[in-house]
Amino acid sequence: MDNQVFETIRTRRSTRSYKKEVPDKVQLDMVLEAGRYAPSGGNSQSARFFCITNTIVLDDLAEIVLKSFAEMEETPGMYRSKVSSIRRAKTGNYRYDYHAPVLVVAVNDRDYGNSMADCSCALENMMIMANALDLGTCWINQLHWLTEDEALLKYLKTLGLKDNERVFASLAVGYPETESGLPVREPLPRTGNAIVNID
Ligand SMILES: Cc1cc2nc3c(=O)[nH]c(=O)nc-3n(C[C@H](O)[C@H](O)[C@H](O)COP(=O)(O)O)c2cc1C
User: Fold this and answer.
1) Class of 12-61+100-174 per CATH?
2) Is the confidence at residue 137, as pLDDT, over 80?
3) pTM for this structure?
4) Over the stretch 53-85, which tens digit does the pLDDT of each residue have?
5) Considering only CA atoms, which residue is closest to atom 18 of ligand 1?
6) pLDDT tops 70 at residue 174
7) Residue 98 CA: which ligand 1 atom is closest?
8) Is residue 98 left, alpha or beta, with left meaning phi > 0 and alpha meaning psi from -120 to 50?
9) What per-residue confidence (pLDDT) applies to 3?
10) Can you give the residue ranges of every domain in the chain?
11) To test the ligand 1 pocket, which listed residue (11, 12, 14, 80) has its Cβ within 8 A of the most ligand atoms?
């Protein structure tokens, strides 16, 4: 097996600033195919991936997210990133997808217990593949947080979301807006994710 794989995994980082242009189609297809080849519970292969490059759709989704988060109130103990989304949305200047030229929205059966796990496996495959191709990615959680939001569901149904499907994850993809054009690849120190050896 190829020992480059570990280096590609180790150096994957989240990209939050993107060039405008949509990545090369061959590369983008490889990223999507890597997601499709992820394992799934019972080999269900029930996830679907909406690969959105249409700027009108990207803007519409950003508007729905902005509005919905601006209407939310913080509650004690709320997840930090959600609080930050609410605060930024209330300023009226909030773009949850970092203006990435591609957003992959992973949807799956609302009532299937492995929906999140299957979508996560797929997204991780996509992130690793993208890193191997010098593309940047970032997991985007806002659409999942809004998965029962009426406005979002109504809009996604116009794009082909089925009645039983909900959003479990989404992924921004694009060329990183860095001087070199390459993703930042310095791994963050591991402070958790402990290994517990039971010998
Ligand atoms: C389940 C999950 C949800 C995440 N949601 C977001 C998000 O909504 N927006 C964002 O900018 N990053 C999001 N991230 C990226 C994490 O913030 C990032 O992976 C973490 O800070 C480690 O940084 P690294 O990816 O550069 O190693 C998410 C990551 C995961 C796994």
Assistant:
1) alpha beta
2) yes
3) 0.97
4) 999 999 999 999 999 999 999 999 999 999 999
5) 14
6) yes
7) 11
8) left
9) 80
10) 12-61+100-174
11) 14
